[in-house]
Amino acid sequence: MTRLSRRNIVAGVLALIVAAGCVRLGIWQLQRLGERRSLNAAVRARMLAAPVAVAELPADTALAHYRRVLVEGVWDFEREIVLAGRTRQGAPGVNILTPVRPAGEGRAVLVSRGWVYSPNGASVDLTRWREGADARVTGYVESFPAAQPGDPRLAVERRAWRRLDAAELARTLPYPIAPYYVVMVADSGGGDVSLPGVAPGDGGAATGAGGDGRGGVPVRAPLPALSEGSHWSYAIQWFSFAAIALGGVATLIWRDGRSQAGHPARRE
Question: What is the pTM for the complete model shown?
């Protein structure tokens, strides 16, 4: 009968601890994958739902996130801004964001109208990108990013911003704005921008402007990609590490057993 050496016992215990930790991490990655799939399903449902008016959005911005929405009112081109340093297919440019003021009472909504070419990635002639006085926008709700220290605006071009900042925008604009902004994905022209995982014609395609952002209308943003991330591959890696740890110690014990069988202890 093969007796386990102290070295093999210690190695076996360590291998079991390592394997248990790896299995736990693999299960955690599978749980994360399940959460991501649930989130994607919720986002997909919001994207495929019929657009609702701004007034019908839930007060909770988290519940309103990614909801398809219809914004109607008047463009306030005099107070539009640009997000600087936005590239598209390697070309420098900016994203144009324009407030829409409702016809009646209510808060204005900042609308991201899309990307346009800018040689320096900061300044652009905004007058050539105006799309008429009246706004009827179909898009999805996006949350403002968390506040960061420092001025969100560029010093050289005061209408150009490094990043969106809800508090600074509220101080800059002379009227109240919604606690979210809307990304415009559809208008009367252009090609199809499909929601990943949904076939065109199933309610998952939105009409977007084509072109290269050098004329006509801004290039509309695509709908967010619904990725499952790397959770599945990470889970496989952790389970593999567990198998390697157990297989390694099993091989060590097997080799020591063969060595003992080939060199039996002498009897007195």
Answer: 0.70
